[in-house]
Amino acid sequence: MGSLEAAVVGAPPKRSPPLRSSPPPAAGRSSLHRARSRLARFLFSEKVGYVQWVLTVAAFLLVIALFQAFLPGSAVERPGGGRDAGGGGLAQIQGLDFGEGIRFVPTKLLARWERESREANSSASGAFGGRPPRRFGLRKPLLALVFPDLLPDAMQLQMVSIASVLKEIGYDVEVFSFEDGPVHSVWQTIGVSVSILPITTKREITIDWLDYNGILVSSLDSRPLISCLSQEPFKNVPVIWTIHERSLALHLNKYAANGQVQLLSDWKQAFSRATVVVFPMYIMPMMYSEFDVDNFLVIPGSPAEAWESDSSAKQKHHNLKENMGYGPEDFVIAIVSSQFSYSGMLIDHALILEALTPLLQQLPYVNTSFSSLKIGILSPNLTAASRTALEAIAQKVGFPNSIVENIIVDQDMNNFMDKADIVIYGSFLEEQFFPNILMQALSLGKLVVAPDLVMISKYVVNGMNAYLFSKEKVDTLSKILLEVVSNGKLSLSAQQVASDGKRHARNLMATETIQGYVSLLEKVVKFPSEIAPPKPIEEIPVKLREEWQWDLFLNIRGMDNLNGSFKRYKMLDKVEEQFNQRNSGNTSANFDEAFSSIAWEEEKIIEMMNAKRRIEEEELKDRSDQPHGTWEEVYRSSKRADRARNELHERDERELERTGQLLCVYEPYFGEGAWPFLHQTSLYRGVGLSSKGRRPGADDIDASSRLPLLSNSYYRDVLGEYGAFFALANRIDRVHKNAWIGFQSWRASARKNSLSKEAEAKLLEAIQKRRHGDALYFWIRLDKDPRNPQHLDFWDFCDAINAGNCRFAVAEVLRRMYNIQLDWNSLPLMPKDGDSWSVMHSWVLPTRSFLEFVMFSRMFVDEMDALAYDDHHMSGRCFLSMSKDRQCYSRLLELLANVWAYHSARRMVYVNPESGAMQEQHRLENRRGQMWIRWFSYATLKGMDEDRAEEADSDRPDRRWLWPQTGEVVWRGVYERERNMRQQQKERRKQQSKDKIRRIKKRARQKTLGKYIKPPPDGADNVNTTRRR
């Protein structure tokens, strides 16, 4: 169809300017203003020549003359309502254009898919090292279908039919719904499991959406899931959001008028999260154009019209015409048109009305005054001026006022079409799809007469399920009408054509819809190497892909249409209510209510007492002696006070309990989507790989602050959980003071594979008693991983999840690590002895052994980065995946702990996550002669680590080197340099002290100017006089 077909050869696809239904007055003024602006630029442009001026004026005068003929003042009134005897009432407009074509082409979306296809082909041809990626096909791709409820409706019928085809070509499907309903049994009939999600708009849905290769969301009411998928780590899961409601589009003007900008922004953010937003009609992308972020697509076709006609047929009364105000002898004709407004619409209706005039003579009059012919023009897009002109045209061609009426209200249009005998499509506009109004008419069993447009002729056959006439020769419409109308009723042949049309409409365009979704999934969903690609749709039975699954809904059809209008606006009302509550939270009324319980007099007294106390303390401080020290002493005291203040922070109960434990299990996570899967007990502690997505108020570790490398999104994605390993190992004594350390992926909790309380107790008991010594305890087995349904051995599974290049990558990295000759390609032996291995980074180790494992991992990751960085960072393609992949070698690192533990002679013990039962895997006595102990010994790894540290610390190479950024750079020269620096600082301080003393001694002193004599007291006699005896 037009939505999925390629663009015109030789030119990029273009998206025609959107034409809307008749806009509100404000929009009309805006359109008029834009038109005037274009006209002004055109008239005053220097490129317009004299001949173009003349042609423009002539065309304008011609249009004025033509429309002047149709105005009420120009209409010629005929006695009795007869038409002009000449018969050429509208002959002068036969040669006019019927309007320009309207096309919606998602240009950027198609260009993106074409670019991705070219990149995929080029990467396959130019593979790394001549090793193209290989697909193993161990399991089927898994899709999730999400619905707001499971009530029977056309959407459920469509998705059940699509899911049946998807299962047939090789997909696995699971259904999620916010409410249960009768369709639950239908999904179970076709072998699809159904899960009920909690009804909440908060992001607390505990489903690991990373398990699904794609998610198909239906209806606006499923927006809570879109909000959940907008957070990490689910932001990159492909989402196809099918929207069939117009309710939100009809609310946009109200939101804009009320100034609800934030509400519009929230909806736009939701639309932008979807990988593709699918609409069933081409007019809907134009209605939702405000939310378009180049991800809109149209897959035309839906069983909605046939479903509604079946539902309304059960509620119809027998005498429908009499109930609607028409007599039983009236012959009703409905003229319908395109859902788009275009310039030639008025001319199209005029030509149709002229072709209907022969029926005035054939159909009898009732009581000799009123004709039994009733014509209704169903066109909500006509303006008031156009309707006035159309009435004048009807009078001009000979119709009395009581025969032709304009119907613009949707409900009246539906009722009028229900009682119509013939439905005529009165639009000659070439469109991209079969008109929905004709689909509705066919589903109601009405006789359809339409022009032979391309998209109409493609789906109906003239004389079999509808009648077609040439748009170039409109007079053929009169001949068709005279043939199908006999004695004021439809002829038997016409009734048979209408009946065949109704049966044909039940599955009309089902093939295009089903194939459209299958083709869309092929473009959107990227399959990892362990997933088998689906079969071509041509290999499934024709009946399955060309018909809707009506038979599955036979027993539940009576339960539909329950509070349909209420359900349609349910989510919109909920979102608007939450928005109003959020905005009204800071009103003066709420502010006064929040502070009404405060005893203001008591607060005032307390504040005065505190102020008085502060003044007294300041006065006493001023009176006391203040010793003055050097700036160095002041700096040290301030630093000491800061450290004391940081150490006195308030600790929660889990942090205090964790201090005396033997073990702490860390749970790395990235984003708010993983919060519901994290544990809250003291045994566990979260590690946020990004500072933005950390849990508020939790005692989680910020990995990016401990390891600045994780602030780079590229390495955060590539390393995965290994980023948490490196961050914790970097100066580990500052955050981890336990003898044992463990890790558990949040995805283990999502898969119900995390440790139970009983398993935790038995694991702690085994650690405390040192039952297995220096061992690696793990509780998620390789042979039970859903990615390994065929129970492959270690290296085969590693190849399967890494596009067949795992062995090559590990051998090449080890060769570079140990600096071995080029022709070396050996691999560490990982035997298939009936035991299993650890996956998903869920294990426990002694802290000292963990540091040794990190020392090995840092060197391995450094060489892995040097091997894959250039190609992956520049193009996004990795030789360990089938398509563009941000994780690249993170799947290989997931299995690296097994290689290190096996060849470093560590015991490997499996712990049953439910019961806690322990079973040793790959016993040490059976490994003799198979382990590479010298390669993985602590002495070897420590020597390699010190060599790299010395190079990084002494030589400081200019090349891009990852290893120094993954942790501490420590070697013997660092300790010596630090000791020398401390000795130099000590000697410098001694010299400064000696210099100070020397300056004091050499300081010049001023001599005494004279001797001070104390004067006698004031009351004493003159002591200088001599006393006579």
Rg from Cα:
41 Å
* Lateral arrangement of strands in the main beta sheet: 20-19-18-21-23-22-24-25
The main sheet comes to: 8 strands, mixed
Low-confidence stretches: 1-48, 65-99, 561-566, 585-600, 645-649
Structural class: alpha/beta
- Fraction of residues in helix: 40-55%
Number of strands: 25
Beta content = 5-15%
Quote the distance from N terminus to C terminus: 149 Å
- Average pLDDT works out at 80
Structural descriptors:
single chain, alpha/beta, Rossmann fold, eight-stranded mixed sheet, seven-stranded parallel sheet, membrane, transmembrane, Glycosyl transferase family 1 domain-containing protein, transmembrane helix
Secondary structure topology:
Elements: H1 25-43, H2 50-68, H3 107-125, E1 142-147, H4 154-169, E2 172-177, H5 183-189, E3 193-196, E4 214-218, H6 223-229, E5 239-242, H7 247-257, H8 261-273, E6 276-279, H9 284-287, E7 296-298, H10 304-313, H11 320-323, E8 331-336, H12 345-356, H13 359-362, E9 365-366, E10 370-371, E11 373-378, H14 384-397, E12 404-407, H15 410-419, E13 422-425, H16 436-443, E14 447-451, H17 454-457, E15 467-469, H18 475-484, E16 485-486, E17 489-490, H19 492-505, H20 510-524, H21 542-546, H22 564-568, H23 570-583, H24 588-594, H25 600-623, H26 631-647, H27 653-659, E18 663-669, E19 684-688, E20 701-702, H28 703-706, H29 713-719, H30 722-729, E21 740-743, H31 746-750, H32 757-768, E22 775-778, H33 794-801, H34 806-817, E23 843-846, H35 847-875, H36 890-893, H37 896-903, E24 907-911, E25 918-921, H38 933-936, H39 938-955, H40 972-1001
Parallel strand pairs: 1-2, 1-4, 2-3, 4-5, 5-6, 6-7, 8-11, 8-13, 11-12, 13-14, 14-15, 18-19, 18-21, 19-20, 22-24
Antiparallel strand pairs: 9-10, 16-17, 21-23, 22-23, 24-25
